[in-house]
Amino acid sequence: MRVVIVGAGEVGYHVIGSLYREGVEIVAVDSDPAILETLRQEFNIRTIQGNAIDSAILKEACVDEAELFVAVTNYDETNIISCLLAGEAGVHKKIARVKTIDFGQESSFSDKKDLGIDLIINPYEVAAEHLASLVANPQVTDYTEFLSGRLQLLRVPIAAENPIAGRSVLDFGQQSQIPQTLIALIQRKGQPFIPSADEIIQAGDEVYFFCERSQKKRLFKYLKLSSRPSKRVYINGGGHIGFALAKRLEKLSLDVRILEISEEQCEWLSQYLDKTLVLHEDGSDSKALQSEGIEHADFFISVTAEDQINVVSCMLAKLNGASKVVALTKQPELIPMLMTGTSIDIAFSPRLLTARNILRFVRGHNLESFFMFPNSDIELLELKLKPGMRCNSGPISDLNLPSGVLIGAVKRGDGIFVPRGNDHLAAGDTIMLLQQRRNRRFSRAFFLDSGEPYQLSDAGTATQNGA
Questions:
Q1: Rounded Cα–Cα distance for residues 303 and 298 (Å)
Q2: Fewest CB within a 10 Å sphere: which of 176, 300, 413, 452?
Q3: Which residues of 294-328 are buried (b: 16+ CB within 10 A; e: fewer)?
């Protein structure tokens, strides 16, 4: 399978890294020779220096032989035009990152389906959708949906008074009596791992739960997490992400306030936001935060263009009484440090979220989606089982799954369940499989049909604008 990736910055790098580990043939196109040299040294892939809207460059990349074309440069025009050229060359699937937002309109540019691009993904909208989900679920620090939204992966910080602190993973399974719920991962000091049944959960851990949607309230009640919804949200920075987030939060009937240092941008925001209070203030000024009642904030979310401002303003907001603070960073490698070494509750990278969403669209004949955990060797696969696979041969307890492989949930027909040792897997099931990369060969032998690298399917065209 050949994949051509145009743009090898942060988003392209993460997509390349994930596909490279699957044995995919990758050709990377970028105008920066230093970036291409790094890719060659780290991944040993073919690279081409040049502009992707040059048909000669695409011909050199043998784009006519590619099954997937991904354009994620920093320039919308380059991404769109190169995808159109790739389509003319016969590429079956095309993905473009487009940052343009049609402000003030109900339908943005990326809603239009007449370009022949299978996925147009907007990093600002992806970030805004992710942040809105966190505001709507203040008990968690990460939130992702699978199986058409019926299964949720929730990351919950564990305080000393939490009833599962000091108890084992097995204790939770036996004592909680919450169906369709499972501890999938534990993140400790910034590093996630798949726990064994006897692993003791520690105060300070962040625990990932697989939870069927209808069981979420029951889980939060068992964990003694506050059911109080968010009411007041401060957004520092009225740029693309801040605006897109405010528009979403207005629909949740929240008290939303944007702090924006540019007077001109404040006037623009006031024109296009209906219910949001726009404040001409510096969100990194402690006195300004105090004067605007930051101590009443359920969330303070800093999404300016400068990482340093985001970090400083979040720490000041926390110091002055904000309940939960969220910082944008352009450097994904800083996320574990920010969340463990500072008072910041959540740090996120729009580029990493974008790469994650692109990879979820890159599916195989029986690979429905792929999910990566930042700064770790753990990945989550949504797989549809076919007849004749080894995993269908007996109860799960007899499969002898190695440490580092976990079946988190099973969708069978219209039902979803967390499998136990005496359960059997069957052809037609869709499973959520957690694995460490070292176990890929085992997983292929048990859960994939031929042990070959994941291949693109003939799934229908889709257009995505959010997460």
A1: 16
A2: 413
A3: beebbbbbbbbeebebbbbbbbbbbebebbbbbbb
- Comparing 2-121 with 139-222, is the CATH topology the same? no
Q: In the chain, where are the structural domains located?
A: 2-121, 139-222, 232-350, 362-447
Please state which CATH number belongs to domain 2-121.
3.40.50.720
Q: What is the pTM of this model?
A: 0.85
**Six-digit token pair at 32?**
């920066």
Q: Among 3.30.70.1450, 3.40.190.10, 3.40.50.300, 3.40.50.1220, what is the CATH number of 362-447? A: 3.30.70.1450
CATH number for the domain formed by residue range(s) 232-350: 3.40.50.720
Second CATH level (architecture) for the domain 139-222: 2-Layer Sandwich (3.30)
Lowest mean pLDDT among 313-322, 373-382, 434-443: 373-382
Q: H or E segment at 350?
A: helix 350-361
For the CA atoms of 392, 397, 401, 404, the dihedral, rounded to the nearest 10 degrees, stands at 130
**Rg (Cα) of the chain, in Å, rounded?**
23
Instruction: Give mean pLDDT, residues 115-142.
Output: 92
What residues are paired with 49 via a beta bridge? 30
Question: Can you tell me the distance from the alpha carbon of 134 to that of 140, in angstroms, rounded to the nearest whole number?
Answer: 7
Within 8 A by CB and 6+ apart from 415, the residues are none
pLDDT at residue 103 greater than cutoff 70: no
Q: What is the pLDDT of residue 359?
A: 81
Percent share of the chain, pLDDT over 70: 91
Of the candidates 380, 392, 381, 390, which has an alpha carbon nearest to the alpha carbon of residue 429? 392
From CA 402, how far away is CA 101, in angstroms rounded? 46
Can you give the pLDDT at residue 449? 55
Is residue 390 helix, strand or coil?
Answer: helix
